Each structure stands twice: as C-alpha cells, then as structure tokens.
From TrEMBL:
The lineage of its organism: Bacteria, Pseudomonadati, Pseudomonadota, Alphaproteobacteria, Acetobacterales. Pfam families: GGACT (PF06094). Coiled coil: none annotated. The keyword Transferase applies. Keywords: Transferase. Residues 3-101 form the Gamma-glutamylcyclotransferase AIG2-like domain. This is Putative gamma-glutamylcyclotransferase. InterPro entries: AIG2-like (IPR045038), AIG2-like_dom (IPR009288), GGCT-like (IPR013024), GGCT-like_sf (IPR036568). One of its GO terms (molecular function) is transferase activity.
Length: 114
C-alpha cells in the first residue's frame, strides 16, 4: 500500500522507530490542493483541503507489521484517505492519514518541533 507521509514520520529516525523497520525509503511527492496544519492541542499535523496550497512529503510502500504499527502510531484521530500525488514523473494514487477537519487548528500551520 502506498502511503503519503507529511509530518513527524518524515524524520527517518521516527519512521524507523515507529514502523519497526529500518531502511524504509520514500520518494519525494507533492500533494496539491491541501495544506498542512496543526492538530488542535497536539504537536502533530493534519491536512486540510486548500485550493492554492500544496504539501511536500514522501510516499512509501507499506504492508504487514510496519503498516499496522504506523496505523497504531497515528491513533484514532486519523483515517487513511485516498489522495492524488504529483511526482517528478507523473501522478500517483496513495493514501494519507488525515484527521477529521473539526480537529484541525485551521489557522495554525504546523511546524516541526526543534
């Protein structure tokens, strides 16, 4: 399953620790028509539809235990939703963990923690 990563899992150390697998390689991807915002009251991001915005991230292929572990890490606030990504060589369908829009701090862009 192809999954678009756009937040804390972009850090290779966090991805390896949470997926339980080292060496996961992602391909740079852009998600047009969305923006990354803070999840209300949390240090994590989510995505909101936004026509003139785009989100840079990575697309990875996951299955089995690593996928289950990352799903548990994302928690109950997030659901896997279909998205269309732009890659250097075309477009690609994938899934992304996205929280319900009511949980987003709409005016607060997400920034990585120091």
């Amino acid at each position: 399953m192809r999954v678009f990563l756009y937040g804390t899992l972009l850090d290779p150390r966090v991805l390896a620790a949470r997926a339980g697998r080292h060496g996961l390689r992602g391909v740079p991807a852009i998600l047009p028509g969305w923006r990354r915002v803070a999840l209300r009251g949390q240090p994590y991001p989510t995505l909101l539809r936004a026509r003139c915005h785009s989100v840079h991230g990575l697309v990875v292929t996951l299955a089995g235990a690593p996928l289950r572990r990352l799903h548990a890490y994302e928690g109950a606030a997030y659901r896997l939703r279909p998205v269309r990504l732009r890659l250097s060589r075309g477009r690609l369908a994938a899934l992304a963990w996205i929280a319900h829009p009511a949980l987003a701090a709409a005016g607060s862009p997400w920034r990585t923690l120091p």
